[in-house]
Specification:
It is built from eight helices and 17 strands. It is of the alpha+beta class and 374 residues long. Pathway: Cell wall biogenesis; peptidoglycan biosynthesis.
């Protein structure tokens, strides 16, 4: 493996696939390996896909015992006017001054994309949308969604509310991994409330390609988007497409991306769990380097028939500075086919590297100076 120092992340090669989506990313669920991306780190308006973060907060509150699925939350006038039928947006048609169980509100957010349901949950948990948004942002930081900021639980337009395709895919992976007991809600085909039956807005659930989640979104400014997941055999993929012109185009581009990802790649077990991929230099540490490992097994998903074209490199901004903590993401494995980047996977420090003693730090300083003047 070639060790390269890089401060910029290059665009992933399109690998013989094109999409009309303005933003797109396709990830292997288990490893987080990016198979395809298009402007995956560009800031976007998440629209109702922001409700995935609302659900993440709600599920965390339920798990903690502070909220129960059978709790009933009050339908305020604010929730009724801002997210109800008169608002013109997606709604549960909740009755003003009624009480609704948390489980029904959760189902509405997922299936109907109910803005009123999202606000009712936010007010029931945190008192106001603003306080709930603070909880959303705290959780986003905790799970590493560095490109996202939330202002409300609905995804209704706000200039200070944004995310990225990569963050939305990671958020989808977080929900699937951390809350499997609630994941079945995402694949329910329809929900009826107040005598009004609404189909799941994720139309790919009914197509028969294994899609079982997660969330769609749309505003006039942002276009149509979706966070989608499919399980085929022992492999799950998570995709994001956004910035499309219609519901039909959203479904078609999502289907194409998932189908391509499922069929166009072969799986290779490159490194078993705990195997050191390479070593990164550490400046001023007790050890002069640290092993780099994956988060579990590193499986490569490579274009079929591409074994002869492969090369790989490990990229990090280095040398690393101590202390380096075991499990800290410090590098990235990049796999190329004929000099085109076809896959990337995060790498983590295999062990702790504390700061070294004066001799070690002086020695490394001399090495740095010896090389720096050239």
């Amino acid at each position: 493996m070639l060790i390269a120092f890089a401060s910029a992340y290059p665009a992933l090669a399109q690998a013989n696939f094109e999409t009309n989506a303005r933003f797109a990313v396709l990830m292997d669920y288990e490893s987080g390996t990016v198979i395809f991306q298009k402007d995956a780190d560009a800031q976007l308006e998440p629209a109702s896909m922001a409700k995935l973060m609302t659900l993440a907060v709600v599920f965390n509150e339920v798990r903690s015992g502070r909220v129960h699925l059978n709790d009933e939350f009050f339908v305020s006038e604010h929730a009724w006017r801002t997210g109800g039928a008169s608002s013109g947006g997606s709604t549960m048609f909740a009755d003003l001054n009624s009480k609704i169980r948390v489980e029904d509100l959760v189902r509405s957010v997922i299936i109907q994309s109910g803005n009123d349901a999202a606000i009712i949950l936010a007010e029931g948990i945190a008192g106001t949308e603003g306080s709930f948004a603070a909880m959303m942002n705290e959780l986003a930081r905790n799970i590493g969604l560095d490109g996202s900021h939330f202002m409300n639980p609905t995804g209704l337009p706000d200039p200070d509310q944004y995310s990225t395709a990569r963050d939305l895919a990671d958020l989808g992976r977080y929900l699937i991994r951390e809350f499997p007991e609630y994941y079945h809600y995402f694949s329910e085909p329809e929900m009826e409330w107040n005598g009004i039956k609404q189909a799941n807005r994720n139309s790919l659930i009914e197509v028969g390609i294994g899609v079982d989640g997660l969330k769609t979104g749309h505003t006039e400014a942002a276009g149509y988007g979706a966070v989608i997941s499919t399980a085929q055999g022992d492999r799950r993929l998570v995709a994001v497409v956004h910035g499309l012109g219609s519901m039909r185009e959203r479904a078609e581009e999502g289907r194409k991306l998932l189908t391509w990802g499922s069929r166009a790649f072969e799986r290779f077990e490159a490194y078993p769990d705990g195997a050191v991929v390479a070593y990164a230099d550490v400046y001023g540490g007790e050890s002069g380097n640290v092993g780099l490992v994956g988060n579990g097994e590193i499986a490569l998903y490579l274009p079929r028939g591409s074994r002869d074209c492969l090369s790989a490199s490990v990229h990090y901004v280095g040398p690393l500075l101590p202390p380096v903590a075991a499990g800290q993401q410090v590098a990235e494995l990049r796999v190329f086919c004929n000099d085109q980047l076809v896959q990337s996977a995060p790498l983590y420090a295999a062990e702790d590297v504390p700061q070294g003693d004066l001799v070690r730090r002086a020695t490394d300083a001399l090495k740095q100076l010896a090389l720096g003047w050239l």
